[in-house]
Amino acid sequence: MGRGGIGSDGVSGGGGGVVAGELREVFEKLKGKLSEINSLEGVRNLLTWDQQVFMPVNGGAARGEQQAVIARVVHAHQTDEALGEYLEKLTVQFGKLQELGFSQLEIASVREAARDYTRTKKKPVELAARAARLESTGVGAWQKARKENDFSLFAPVLQEWLEIVREEAAAVDPELDVYDFCLDKYERGATRKSLDPFFASIKNPLIELLRQILKKREEEEGNNNPNPQFLHTKESFSGSFSVETQKRLAKKLSEELGFEYASGRFDESVHPMTINIVSPFDVRLTSRFSETDLSAGILATLHETGHGLYEQGRDAQACKDGLPASRPPGLGLHESQSLLWEKQVGMSAEYWEHYWPEVLTNFSTSLPNKTAEDSTQFHKAINEIKPSFIRVYADEVSYPLHILLRYEIEKGLLDGSLPIADVPAVWNQKMKEYLGIVPKNDTEGCLQDIHWGLGAFGYFPTYTLGAVYASMLLKTAEKQIPQLRQCIKEGQFKPLREWLREKIHVVGSLYETADELIENITGTKLDASCFLSYLSRKYGALYDLSTPAAETKADVANAS
Amino acid sequence: MGRGGIGSDGVSGGGGGVVAGELREVFEKLKGKLSEINSLEGVRNLLTWDQQVFMPVNGGAARGEQQAVIARVVHAHQTDEALGEYLEKLTVQFGKLQELGFSQLEIASVREAARDYTRTKKKPVELAARAARLESTGVGAWQKARKENDFSLFAPVLQEWLEIVREEAAAVDPELDVYDFCLDKYERGATRKSLDPFFASIKNPLIELLRQILKKREEEEGNNNPNPQFLHTKESFSGSFSVETQKRLAKKLSEELGFEYASGRFDESVHPMTINIVSPFDVRLTSRFSETDLSAGILATLHETGHGLYEQGRDAQACKDGLPASRPPGLGLHESQSLLWEKQVGMSAEYWEHYWPEVLTNFSTSLPNKTAEDSTQFHKAINEIKPSFIRVYADEVSYPLHILLRYEIEKGLLDGSLPIADVPAVWNQKMKEYLGIVPKNDTEGCLQDIHWGLGAFGYFPTYTLGAVYASMLLKTAEKQIPQLRQCIKEGQFKPLREWLREKIHVVGSLYETADELIENITGTKLDASCFLSYLSRKYGALYDLSTPAAETKADVANAS
User: Fold this and answer.
1) Does the beta carbon of A76 lie under 8 angstroms from any beta carbon of chain B?
2) Which of A57, A61, A265 sits opposite B56 (nearest CB)?
């Protein structure tokens, strides 16, 4: 597909010469406006990054003011009448843009920019202000509710968010179901209709796989002569590990995956994050490290590196021009890149076969009894399956079940079928049903995540979409890249990275939805079967399960 | 003097009730606008700070775009019609504001805001854009000229700056002499008429003091039995000093001077700087360190700490409200704070008597033969008088002579009496006359500073105004603070810091010029005599001069 406008200026269909020239001029003006918005978004991100990483504690209140002023400035630019006029002129000719010499990327950018403009214009200013206020008071109430372990302190916030979101949906896209409106914000085109069967297809296979693993663990641990691999839990690799050394190693690993430090940074923050000041030229990763935990900080770094590689892989010229089609099409696909590098690569046996000697060199005194052969122990330890109350600590098998229960609760809240007051009870009942454990209080239960305090309903499903996209992509990559597993074993990540760059990163939002892009790459629409197969194979082997339950069922589901 | 509007709302003179209430409302709206501008200026500063300290190298071009967009946004806010209306309403009643219950700080803020608004409005947008372009190309040309040691590459930039500055002066303040217009940008109220006699009063005494010191050095060095103190040059304290240790020590010293790290940061950058993200809540210092030089990085840190203490000492509520009267009245006074802490405190015998043991503890292996008694050696070494071609490396006695020659050249360029092509020759001739040395090329001569490449004519004098203000302030402080020198010897800086805070930092621009504020504090208008006395006393003692030449002449000059 063509990209950028090189050579396309002045091209015109028969008789369309004047229109083409005029439209090209309008498009250039549009680019000017869009690249201003892009610059301002980057400024906003710098304010956030600095706040999380380096800002002194007393700077907080003034930073809030700066964020509010910049948000108003961004909004004014996004709803600028001139921007609207340019878009109007281009969209009335939308069907003809291709024959008038516009590239696919330019056409997609007109589509995206027009959509952004219309939606921002339709959102009442008063509602946006109300949402901004509730974002800050809502998080405060959420923190207080957690501290006092009292859901009733948070319930009114949830109530107001539901009202705001319903009003917003009614104003911006009244045709759409309100939860679909929420989903669409984070994952374009995702709907209850598409996600209900998707989640249905993973629910039982995962519950069953988890049940089998736990049963096997129980049997082995009760065994007089247990299989030694069950001894390799995360705890068996706890100890005292210099944070400075962990950081140095984590940074090196991110660099070897291909993150470019001439165009990025790596720092510490309380919550690991990736933030683009200006993609692909200035992309910043953060991670956090614990003295007692060898793997968490390193794996979090690999996760953020995956996000960072996506941002650094975007189309440089299109980014410079502020073209919105250079953006990722949704959060699910973004998450697929972080999960692919963290879980599918960074938690694989091959990866640690390669890097284990380096861990030993760096932490020789903390790991006195380990030898070069112990990489498999480490691999097993970091892949330990152990249900947790807390989503962010969840293993790969449990994680989608954490998401499923949130999806079901969100849906119920937004269609009104679930009263707010019932959330704690439903949460706990679903935890019991899906994961077999019940949190001892709401702080470890339905109050654990910040998302609903920010009104971010519809966000959670993108985590599991990401996991599934990652499996689908890796399956295709393994077919198209010779010796991919061998490359990983040798620490050669360029083939996979370049493949992802070409197939995904530079493509941006040329397709309107991630699902279309995924189908284009893999030949298949969203489908959990290869994710389930991957889990069955991996954990079937690690836990020596006789029947890879999930895989069988998924293959059946897939065939039907 | 009263500060903030507490209790003043609703106060009204006889019959002025309605006006007072209305004006108060207008003033509140004005504050809203001003605090937005203030927030945006802070954002701009964050972009600059990040660029100098942490930005990855490939982020440069996009950062330039972000800076340009924010500059336009700031300009739009500064010239907002509503802002103009509020100011109009307040300034027509300016003479009555006090009786209508406005505080001095509020009244001064109206004065400052109206001045800013009028001047920004008058400056043609096209001229501002031309200046912005030349700022970037001018610095490029300056760098190239330096690299190739070819003044002719820089001359056209100088020519264009002169044109721009003349046009700007004609548009903004046609009554004012054009160089006075330049001076006024950095030091309100400074004029050729005030600075000519000021510089005349320091020129001969400093040339004479320098001559005496150099003569004495020459005699002693040629002596068969030299005075050992002449052996204590900066070089005698060169060696290998861990940069990490220097940074730790420098940070500790800044903290002990009173810089608050809950409201600030300390980092490294190529050019040491102080930048206020939001004073007094978020103020950031940087310094640079060299492995081979023990004192430069530490002294640069003390210098920046002086600037930082000013910013952290500003009136918090007035800053929050964005009131421009909370700002320092000019660069000279700002520089007085950095020089006071760096030179008058940080390069004093008392200061190093206190901190020398700490230096020894931190650098015991790098300073193997030094003992607790050697603090006087170190004090002499850091105060070594040795003319340099380069302003930023100049000692306290030579520095004003570097400034004087720049002042004379700038004046000549702007009044047309000095052709651009003659700058190199005049520079070298004045170097010979004032400092007794001639640079071997223009890179070490008239191309050494960035200021003219940025069109910043009129900036240089503020360095020497700062040095003189610092002496005037310290002289008064010594009268008003009991045992000030003893405090410094004991590492007690709070009395001096609090005195400066009360007399200067919180006062902001309540007075329109620094000169008025200085007179109010010291009882004297700008006068170099106590600066000259300070230099004579200090270096007369260090270099064992029989006749403290400068002091005598200055006292005569002062008495006449």
Assistant:
1) no
2) A265
